[in-house]
Amino acid sequence: MDVVDLVNCNDAVELPEHLTKTTADVRRRVCALKKLQLDTLKIQSEFYAKVHELEAEFTKVTASLGEKRAAIISGQYEPTGEETSAPLLHLVEKNELAEFEREWNNNNPNKGDVGIPDFWLNVFKGSASFVDMIQEHDEPILKHLVDLTYTVEVSPQAFTLIFKFAPDNGYFTNTEITKRYEISTAVDEKEPFMYAGPYWVSITGTNIDWLPGKNVTKDAAGEVQESVFNFFGVSGKKEDCADDDEVEAQLDMDYEIGMTIRDEIIPRAVLYYTGESGEIESEYDSFEDGEDSDEDGEEGTIEEMDE
Questions:
Q1: In what order do the strands lie in the sheet with 158-165?
Q2: Contact 120/145 with Cβ under 8 angstroms?
Q3: Which residues face 153 on adjacent strands?
Q4: Global pTM?
Q5: Among 65, 76, 149, 185, which is most exposed with the fewest C-beta within 10 angstroms?
Q6: Could you report the per-residue pLDDT of 38-81, keeping only the tens digit for each?
């Protein structure tokens, strides 16, 4: 058995042909590079640990802004003057927007709405990552979502998503539903070269106390059906699914969803509400593809947004 067969038998990486033609001296130098790689990973691990600590610190700093946003959305606080000076849409010319706002005002006379109705429902529907997860039977519940925040723990390393619902939502007794992700920034000693930054260690969702006949995660026959609220039923520990690739893949995807909510949905919620988040992502995509938006055509207009 040659070295290639030995590697294949051990389910290791596919051995490149050029490596089989190296001398002992060259391989020794490659091993030195591998040692440097290990040292680099340790430094990266320390970096991510520091980032996590900073996130915990600045989450507390920005908490007051999140509280003010929640107060505006719920109608507990009415912004005035300088507080409302930002443009409604950054990607549309001011004079063009003013013209269509007059039309919008004529079509939508003030009915005394409190706050911003259905804010979080429309935020999630404005996200390409979540719009397909939301079923028709989920929407009436999401209309009662009044705030979405997260907290960060340093020891153990973790973050918790907190979904706050109106007490009289008519579907469950919970006023808060949480999803906690314990993570690690450490390099796995068994598989150090697989390290790519923080990874989940355990995932824990809240048990939802559904009111009789209101559980949208079950159909009339009591069978599990698609619902965005199934997200809270996904829990597990990495150590328990080492031999179950399917379960681990499901939890990996759940972790990605959790990070998207933490890193995108919560801090940029208003941009998902106005539809600008997708526009901004498209601009970045065009840039990365080497396309010049000015050559491809004009920016999207209000007419196109209304279609």
A1: 145-153, 158-165, 176-184, 199-205, 236-237
A2: yes
A3: 158
A4: 0.85
A5: 65
A6: 999 999 999 999 999 999 999 999 999 999 999 999 999 999 99
